[in-house]
Design a protein that fits this description.
Blueprint lengths: L1 H6 L4 H17 L3 H14 L4 H17 L3 H17 L3 H14 L12 H8 L4 H10 L4 H8 L16
Length: 165
């Protein structure tokens, strides 16, 4: 994984190939942390992401939470903030950002460089409705956040048109 990150900018195809090897190893031993990290790193390198990468990260975080690896689940969820934003799911990204910040778990510095709009939210700037969602996220626990992001639950007080399926 470290070698893939080192090659991310200079040789993205080689980095993706290395990450594919890590993914195969992680899957063979059912390691949800590395499965989530591969999806996160693929998005960073540019060889993945999208709805599939998001689903992989959410599944990995859900499995980590299920087996009691809470801090690792939050680490994976920090990458979900980026993936949601990149997919244009800004409301969910703001909610997840608030939850991740409140978790007390710090994301990976290299991979967790936030887009400028999310940096604004962290400073207390940005759109009012996104700040409200970030604040609501700060009151959201891990299991609830996973249900919300997977579409199995809607945030309290929001109607069906305010939250994506």
């Amino acid at each position: 994984m470290t070698q893939a990150l080192a090659l991310a900018k200079s040789d993205p195809p080689r980095a993706v190939a290395l990450l594919d090897q890590v993914a195969a190893l992680a899957a063979s031993v059912r390691n949800p942390y590395f499965i989530g990290q591969v999806a996160e790193t693929l998005a960073y390198v540019g060889g993945g992401g999208g709805p599939e990468g998001l689903a992989t990260c959410l599944d990995a975080a859900d499995e980590l939470q299920r087996i009691g690896r809470i801090a690792l689940a939050w680490l994976v969820l920090w990458s979900v903030v980026h993936l949601l934003w990149a997919l244009g799911r800004t409301d969910e990204a703001a909610l997840a950002l608030g939850a991740c910040e409140a978790s007390g778990v710090v994301g990976h510095v290299v991979l967790e460089e936030l887009p400028p709009e999310l940096q604004e939210l962290r400073r207390g700037d940005g759109a009012a409705h996104l700040q409200q969602l970030r604040s609501r996220g700060s009151q959201t626990g891990l299991a609830e956040l996973l249900r919300l992001l997977a579409g199995r639950q809607r945030p309290p007080g929001m109607n069906s048109t305010d939250w994506p399926e």
